[in-house]
């Protein structure tokens, strides 16, 4: 018997257009999808996958490179691919209602800064989730998706909340800061988030009421653990 359902929202973007017009290939980051999925399933929850249009995003190849993503990356890639394959066609985000779910999880990869940050359907879903006190989790570039949630006057619903996300420093170290249309941590701060930064590439998680955020891939498992503890 499932304890409840968790909605994992993926980006549908496979390209991040740079300020010089070049196209940077992107996709889901294996650990950020696999670690929360694994934790929630182990804890007795059912995980559904959704994306804009139900499009299955490719794997970000960097997340399969041990030099970039660590020695555990092959396990994360295998888990993510198996989970997606077993789930089958992704749900269309625009057709999903929040009532069926106890929590929403927003993993990264650069995709959320391409599409999810301005996805009106996701914005409505997150607004309803927040209003209903449901748990919302976002890791690495996933917090970009929170930017989609606005009130009738266009004000950001998560302004003033404590959170963390992939930092400008981490973006520089990764080699993707130059040419980025905008940098996530800076944008969150500009729009009123209380963005709390940890050390680059070290696990760093923030909990603010029903909002759970992790700074980078290393923060993915802890994100899910914190959410599971709160659901208990």
From TrEMBL:
InterPro entries in alphabetical order: Class_I_gatase-like, DJ-1/PfpI, Prot/Nucl_acid_deglycase
One Pfam family this sequence matches: DJ-1_PfpI
Family statement drawn from the similarity comment of this UniProt entry: Belongs to the peptidase C56 family. HSP31-like subfamily.
One cellular component (GO) term of this entry: cytoplasm
Keyword field: Glutamine amidotransferase, Lyase, Stress response
Domain of life: Bacteria
Protein name in the entry: Type 1 glutamine amidotransferase domain-containing protein
Xref: Gene3D superfamilies: 3.40.50.880
GO MF term list: glyoxalase III activity
Domain DJ-1/PfpI: 32-228
Keyword Lyase among record annotations: yes
């Amino acid at each position: 018997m499932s304890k409840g359902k968790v909605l994992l929202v993926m980006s549908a973007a496979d390209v991040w257009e740079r300020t010089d017009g070049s196209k940077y290939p992107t996709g889901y980051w294996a650990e950020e999808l696999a670690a929360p999925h694994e934790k929630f399933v182990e804890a007795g929850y059912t995980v559904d996958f959704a994306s804009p249009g139900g499009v299955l995003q490719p794997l970000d190849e960097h997340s399969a490179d041990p030099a970039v993503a660590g020695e555990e990356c092959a396990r994360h890639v295998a888990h993510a691919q198996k989970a997606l394959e077993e789930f089958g066609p992704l749900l269309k985000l625009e057709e999903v209602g929040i009532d069926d779910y106890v929590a929403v999880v927003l993993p990264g990869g650069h995709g959320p800064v391409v599409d999810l940050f301005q996805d009106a359907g996701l914005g409505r879903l997150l607004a309803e989730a927040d209003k209903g006190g449901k748990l919302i989790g976002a890791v690495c570039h996933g917090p970009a998706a929170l930017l989609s949630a606005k009130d009738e006057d266009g004000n950001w619903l998560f302004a003033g909340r404590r959170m963390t996300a992939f930092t400008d420093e981490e973006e520089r170290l990764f080699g993707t800061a130059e040419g980025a249309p905008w940098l996530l941590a800076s944008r969150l701060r500009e729009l009123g988030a209380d963005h709390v930064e940890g050390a680059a590439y070290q696990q760093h998680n923030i909990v603010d009421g029903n909002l759970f955020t992790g700074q980078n891939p290393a923060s993915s498992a802890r994100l899910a653990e914190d959410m599971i503890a709160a659901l208990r």
